[in-house]
Amino acid sequence: MAQIVLLHSAYGLRPAVHAAADRLRAAGHQVHTPDLYDGRTFDTVEEGMAYKEELTNDELLRRAVAAVVPLLTPANGTTPPDRLVYAGFSLGGALAQNLALADEQAKGLLLLHGTSDIRDDAATAIPVQLHVAEPDPFESEDWLNAWYLRMRKAGADVEVHRYRGAGHIFTDPELPDYDAEAAEQTWAAALDFLAELDD
């Protein structure tokens, strides 16, 4: 069983995020779904990105850190908590990556539709799984190639799954991007990945 922090996309904490968390819980994992938007959700990516810009990247990262810190703090002052698996959708994936690379005890990183830049001095040995559309309007081929090389240079064990013809956030049934086949393939691979972290 993994303890997972699952971060939402620029659309906010939509039903698809809760459904994903329930799917992971059904497989025996403990899942936390912090709301970084204070209850606000959006129907278009433009609206969601506008609100994200209003909040600023620094504020979103601060909120994500604040949500994670209690999970990293021993409950009784002596027993260490479980190591975390960081996961996220699109923008949430970028935030999850930043958190995972800053947490020396991170257990794994599951990226759904999004990545983030990597510092030159980054160092990590965590397993990473990325699921991304091919092509993806927010994750260009050049960017993904550079991201992969930099993650490998940092020491991460990286696995990339690409889905030709799928839309950007193809796992959300309520979005135009949705691709049922790609979504099912994603969750099958993700559940296998999480199971392997416990081996």
Describe this structure in words.
This protein has 199 residues and is an alpha/beta fold. The protein has one domain (3-197): 3-Layer(aba) Sandwich (Rossmann fold). Helices cover 42% and strands 18% of the residues. The protein has 6 helices and 6 strands, in the order βαβααβαββαβα. The protein has helices at residues 15-26, 45-55, 57-72, 91-102, 141-154, 180-197; strands at 3-7, 30-32, 84-89, 108-112, 127-134, 157-164. A 6-stranded parallel beta sheet has the order 2-1-3-4-5-6, with helices on both faces. Strand 1 (3-7), helix 1 (15-26) and strand 2 (30-32) form a beta-alpha-beta unit. The longest helix has 18 residues, at 180-197. The model has no long low-confidence stretch (mean pLDDT 95).
Write a short abstract of this structure.
The chain is of the alpha/beta class. The chain contains 6 helices and 6 strands, in the order E-H-E-H-H-E-H-E-E-H-E-H. The radius of gyration is 16 Å and the shape is globular.
